[in-house]
Amino acid sequence: MPDSNVIRILVVDDHFMVRMGLCASLNVEPDMRVVAEAGNGQEALEAYRQHQPALVLMDVRLPAMSGIEAAAAILSEFPNAHILMLSTHAGEEEIYRSLQTGAAGYILKSAVREQLLHAIRQVCRGERYVDPSITSLLAARLSHRSLTGRELEVLRMVVQGLSNKEIGVALNIAEVTVKLHVSHVLEKLDVKDRTHAATEALKRGIVSS
Q: Comparing C-alpha atoms, which of 58, 47, 48 is closest to residue 13?
């Protein structure tokens, strides 16, 4: 097959064995070739600059710079980049943020090989692909109100187990202000207490553990 018809792919995952398996699976396809690999977000950005592949297969959860942050960095420099997010998790917030960032697709690592190949080809045609098993989660997220930046900061500290007083000290705000932010977080997450808020935040992918 002529090189012009081959989908050149950058594989990004922090686990070597996962990268090796993906590369081996994709390279046997006559219309696909892995041209570069990366183990973290910064490496992904540098590899994209060097190779400018047709598609980036990007793990969502990476050390230091997350896959979502790496996707945003690539797209800020290369607006026409095609990025397909790959994840073990199905947190609604991660799905939403990935697509809001500009990624063209989101697929779970549990997907069968044929589904992954289909997703890659579809995204390379300029179309969006969302794993059918997570469309209901995405729909649920779209129905929720977004947290503000400050509310997200407070929620992260709630998940860490900090008290309102400790959060106030950390953020240099009054304890009564923290209480107000917490009440807004509970309302937006539709939960009754801090423990439930922390559980929901982790389950939905709003905050990483």
A: 58
